[in-house]
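pls read this protein.

:::
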Amino acid sequence: MVISCICNSYAIFAQSIPSTSIGKIVIDPGHGGHDPGALSPDRKLREKDINLSVAMYLGGAIRESYPDIEVLYTRSSDVAVDLDKRGMLATEGHADLFISIHVNSTRRSVTVPLGPETWVFGGDRSMRKDDSYEVVLKENEVIKFEENYRAKYEGFDPENPQSMIVFNFQKDAITRQSKILATCIQQTLRSGPLKGNSKDRGMKEGGLMVLAYCSMPAILVELGFINSASDRKILGSDSGRKKLARQLFLGFDKYYKAVTQENNITASPRKAVEKQYRVQVMAGNKKIPATSAVFKGYGQVNYIECPEQKYKYKYTIGNFDTPEEAQEFCTQLRSKDFPGAFVIAVQEGKQVPVK
């Protein structure tokens, strides 16, 4: 099979995909907890919330189409996770892919669309301080939120990506796979809804700490720019985040099919969608945006439409595989911002009995 037929117009696809299979994926919603990530000009829209929402939608899409693939998250709520632990979770869990989700920013606010870019790990050999250099600096600066980071990362300087060379233990085959995955993702993201301008920001290499600890194909995705008024319309809406997650899934799907066909592996047949457990926090007859202050800044805000009931819309926070996980999160919400919260089950977009 010729890889360039799958994802054409990119030179990297002249290379063959090393033999592999995909049974487990780790999705990493960047930032979290005391680290909000990039902020909108009015500081109301936070990168960490966007990342978490898109990550959960992506995981759900993968589970729905490939139920035999195990999907794990480095975080499923608004908590801080150290950069090294994100990659190590994937490595120690023997994951086959690692996808880190982020949102970009520039120093000045703009009105024009800027769009997505994807990253793979690579020693930064250039000292040019262009926008690519700044992305690496921005993402690596997260370690400053961690205690005793200088000793922990053995002298790594987040202000100098050149020092990442000490972490460059990835093999060439893994790097090639990472580039193929990144290119598939970049290509599908470029088809919308954040197409950016006429110039593709493309796939890039850099000394990104979060990817340094991954021993499998790993990429970091910058979905768009939070300080672009055009990009922000998509990033700030629940429907926009669902569309972005869909494009990420299509990129993964393209890569998956390339891998399975290369190895004569038959993709798992689609099965019935399993129950997902959520925590209902309110209900009403008006649509409320996920970014509304009534949701106290929580991510993963969804609603279920129930036209036959008194209150048409039921609003939920979180998305869990088991009722026990949902109940644990529900207990946290009850003790803080939503004392009336309770667990519900959702299947194929409709509420079903929990048990």
